[in-house]
């Protein structure tokens, strides 16, 4: 029997990787349907704030907004920093993932990924934001578990597997076995810290002020965790000269960027080595055979796999589709009964 569209009662369960830099949404039986920046542009008029744009459109406005518009990133270090803006962002992404705002209430269960080191207060904020955005029930999954499932690691078997998820705000290092985290460590170092290090280095060495988008572009273009022989590749960078105040263009080399990001890269390597030191011998033996799998946007940093391999003496591989492993893993945990037990009702 045909039911008119306006009378249909939609039901779409989904998983959300609510990242510091990007939000990725996986809808049951559809897979990844949305991947956009975790940015909201807020317009203030007569003292009243309202959301102007969200996601891709909002990111384009960062650093270029007039006085009455502010581009905000409501997530920081993998957790919610501005709950009101986060709620509006989540609601926008849920509606967009499901084809637009509903004329009737939707019922959907939502799985949200959380850093393994997040506090109960931070987890409650994520639950409340998702509930207020329209979720009928909210489940949480720890990011390293989701990353491991998304990368295809055997997390349901009695085999030790190690994943390093390098996100925008945090790096999650975990050893997994039998649907549980045998060890996990979360450090608040990720892509944002790499960008900050690049910005600070260029300001200090070249007296040039660059924006967030420029630092990110430098990282993606010539970023390297390993110092090259000689200067390496180079690129032109534009910014504001701090001495004259004028727009200026300079040349930045790959070796300079490797120097700039050396400290945050060292912190990531330290977190990996710490995890190995705290891993039970039998699980450590499995990791020697299986190696370490890298996920997240930071896994795409040039030579990061080689640096970690050199520091640990273990094989290191970057997962296929590393950017979406967490969301894909959370979605599979939602769909597949084999992963029952990895979700927690918030």
From TrEMBL:
InterPro entries membership: ATPase_NBD (IPR043129), MreB (IPR004753), MreB_MamK-like (IPR056546)
Binding-site list for ATP: 168-170, 216-219, 297-300
Pfam families found in the cross-reference section: MreB_Mbl
Q: Which UniProt keywords apply?
A: ATP-binding, Cell shape, Cytoplasm, Nucleotide-binding
Give the superkingdom in one word: Bacteria
Q: Which GO terms describe its molecular function?
A: ATP binding
Q: List the subcellular locations.
A: Cytoplasm
Question: Does this UniProt record's set of keywords contain Disulfide bond?
Answer: no
UniProt keyword Nucleotide-binding, yes or no: yes
The UniProt entry's GO CC annotations, sorted and at most eight, read:
cytoplasm
Task: Please provide the Gene Ontology terms (biological process) for this protein.
Answer: cell morphogenesis; regulation of cell shape
Q: What family is it from? A: Belongs to the FtsA/MreB family.
**Quaternary structure?**
Forms polymers.
What function does this protein fulfil? Answer: Forms membrane-associated dynamic filaments that are essential for cell shape determination. Acts by regulating cell wall synthesis and cell elongation, and thus cell shape. A feedback loop between cell geometry and MreB localization may maintain elongated cell shape by targeting cell wall growth to regions of negative cell wall curvature.
Q: What is the protein's name according to its record?
A: Cell shape-determining protein MreB
Organism source for this protein? Answer: Sphingomonas paeninsulae
């Amino acid at each position: 029997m045909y039911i008119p569209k306006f009378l249909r009662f939609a039901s779409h369960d989904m998983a959300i990787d609510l990242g510091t830099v990007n939000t990725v949404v996986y809808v049951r039986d559809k897979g990844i349907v949305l991947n956009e920046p975790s940015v909201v542009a807020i317009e203030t008029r007569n003292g009243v704030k309202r959301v102007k744009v969200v996601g891709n459109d909002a990111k384009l406005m960062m650093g270029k907004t007039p006085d009455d518009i502010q581009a905000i990133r409501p997530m920081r270090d993998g957790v919610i920093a501005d709950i009101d803006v986060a709620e509006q962002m989540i609601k926008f992404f849920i509606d967009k993932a499901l084809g637009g705002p509903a004329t009737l209430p939707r019922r959907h269960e939502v799985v949200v990924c959380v850093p393994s080191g997040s506090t109960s207060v931070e987890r409650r904020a994520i639950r409340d934001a998702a509930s207020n955005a329209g979720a009928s029930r909210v489940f949480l999954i720890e990011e390293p578990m989701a990353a491991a499932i998304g990368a295809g690691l055997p997390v349901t078997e009695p085999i030790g597997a190690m994943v390093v998820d390098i996100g925008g705000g945090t790096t999650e290092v975990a050893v997994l076995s039998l649907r549980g985290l045998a060890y996990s460590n979360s450090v608040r170092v990720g892509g944002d810290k790499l960008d900050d290090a690049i910005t600070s280095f260029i300001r200090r060495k070249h007296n040039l002020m660059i924006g967030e988008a420029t630092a990110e572009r430098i990282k993606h273009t010539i970023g390297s965790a390993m110092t090259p022989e000689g200067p390496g590749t180079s690129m032109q960078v534009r910014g504001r000269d701090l001495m004259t105040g004028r727009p200026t263009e300079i040349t930045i080399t790959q070796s300079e960027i490797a120097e700039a990001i050396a400290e945050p890269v060292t912190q990531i390597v330290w977190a990996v080595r710490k995890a190995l030191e705290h891993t039970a011998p039998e699980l450590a033996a499995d990791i020697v055979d299986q190696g370490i799998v890298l996920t997240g946007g930071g896994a795409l940093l040039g030579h990061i796999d080689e640096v970690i391999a050199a520091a640990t003496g273990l094989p290191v591989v970057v997962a296929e589709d590393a950017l979406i492993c967490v969301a894909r893993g959370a979605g599979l945990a939602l769909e597949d009964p084999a992963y029952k037990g990895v979700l927690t009702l918030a």
